[in-house]
Amino acid sequence: MKTILVIEDNREVRENIAEILTLAQYRVVQAADGKQGVELARTVVPNLILCDIMMPELDGYGVLHIISKDPTTATIPFIFLTAKANVTDFRSGMDLGADDYLTKPFDDIALLNAVELRLRKGEQTRLQQHVDGLAILLGSVREPTSEQPSTADTYPSVHYRKKQVLYAEGNFPSAIYFIRKGQVKRFQTYGSGNQYITALAGPGDFVGYLALLQQKAHNESAEMLDDAELVAVPKSDFFNLIDHNPDVANYFIRLLADDVVEREKRLIKLAYQSVRQRVAEALLMVQHKLYPLDATLTNGRLPAMSLSRETWSDLVGASTETVIRTLSDLRTEGLIDLSGGQITLLNMEKLARLRR
Questions:
Q1: Which residue among 28, 39, 179, 258 is the one 20 to 30 A from 230 at the CA level?
Q2: Cβ atoms 335, 327 nearer than 8 A
Q3: Of residues 191 and 162, which shows the higher confidence score?
Q4: Contact 348/334 with Cβ under 8 angstroms?
Q5: Residue of 47, 6, 9, 11 lying closest to 29 (CA atoms)
Q6: With left for phi above 0 and alpha for psi between -120 and 50, is residue 232 left, alpha or beta?
Q7: Taking a C-beta distance cutoff of 8 angstroms, is the pair 74, 68 a contact?
Q8: Which tens digit of pLDDT belongs to each residue from 227-261?
Q9: Integer Cα distance of 242 and 168 in angstroms
Q10: Positive or negative, the Cα torsion across 59, 72, 134, 122?
């Protein structure tokens, strides 16, 4: 089930759109203004955004500008809803990165056709980025030839077991890794063996590049959260690509920048948020990173998350007992469901408000 965020200050128009989309088997999240829309876009990370242009405080152009600068939301397909139809307005929106326009008033068919088209193109783009992540690294944007084998032939996948260590803190790097399947946690060890999880990674992500670029020993470890399939690109090949391919170099500069920003945000939240806020933050982060909303839903529910109690504790930065007690409180409040060691989010909007 795809999730669509509708940002529209006119309640009647917003609810009519939501009703049509719900009947078409989409999950709909509604925002009554631009500021709320930006917050929900970051929290829910929908598959598509429908946004009115003329709104008080923050208009549609401002919404698009903000979400296009955020790595979490930058690739979400975006459709403007507008009563205006002149060339200047269209050009302004397209220059900012809008994917399409729907001019009011529009009928049900026009709405559903536009949504279906943008979701299809967005899915194609996402899958292409996901599958071709390794190809971007290797510069293999051309079709394989007899002289140029495919990347899969050059660097075959290696299977790893759950809890198997990919690399350890203090070891010197020999390769960069691309995740084809599975989940990986990056963490640092401190004190009496306690862990601080620095990042989570899933299919389509790279791990191990920080130490390579710094040409230093790893300052963190990486371990499989479940059975996984990874591709290792040797250090020498990686540097050859960085040195001779500006696109690859720019790609990893962006990854490094995003990594630094995300770490700073997490450290600030660990320092100033309550345990309850940090638990909500961890739940939303894991859902977005490892269990995306476009996964197949069961009975209309989000995919259940399955991590060990120790992993949740390391993510939150609190004792296992404290985290379990907080999760139980959230279950009592109807925000999550706990069953057999799995967690299902029942109300992401309330969890997002809780973490503030």
A1: 258
A2: no
A3: 162
A4: no
A5: 6
A6: beta
A7: yes
A8: 999 989 888 888 887 887 777 788 888 888 888 87
A9: 24
A10: negative
Let me know: does 227 contact 179? Beta carbons within 8 Å.
no
Which residues 6+ apart lie within 8 Å of 247 measured at CB?
136, 139
Among the ranges 86-95, 96-105, 164-173, 342-351, which has the highest mean pLDDT value?
164-173
pLDDT value at 321 more than 90: yes
Torsion of CA 280, 303, 162, 168, to 10 degrees: -40
Name which CATH class applies to 134-260.
mainly beta
236 half-sphere exposure, CB direction, 13 A CA radius: 0
Q: How far apart are CA 76 and CA 48, in angstroms?
A: 6
CATH 2.40.40.20 fits 273-354, yes or no: no
Q: pTM of this prediction?
A: 0.62
Q: Do 262 and 176 touch, CB atoms closer than 8 A?
A: no
248: left (phi over 0), alpha (psi -120 to 50) or beta: alpha
Q: ∠ at Cα 132 (73, 204), nearest 5°?
A: 55
173: Cβ contacts below 8 Å, ≥ 6 apart: 167, 208, 211, 212, 217, 218, 235
Phi, psi of 78 (to 5 degrees): -135, 125
CA 40, 349, 299, 111 torsion-angle sign: negative
List the chain domain ranges: 3-131, 134-260, 273-354
Q: Measuring CA to CA, which residue among 57, 58, 1 is closest to residue 29?
A: 1
Distance CA 113, CA 109 (A): 6
Are 25 and 1 a contacting pair, CB within 8 Å?
A: yes
Ordered DSSP codes for 55-97: -SSS-HHHHHHHHHHSTTTTTS-EEEEES---HHHHHHHHHHT
CB proximity list for 301: less than 8 A, separation 6 or greater: 337, 344, 346
Amino acid letter for position 342: Q
Note whether 4 and 48 are within 8 A (CB).
yes
Q: State the residue for tokens 């009011």.
A: 104
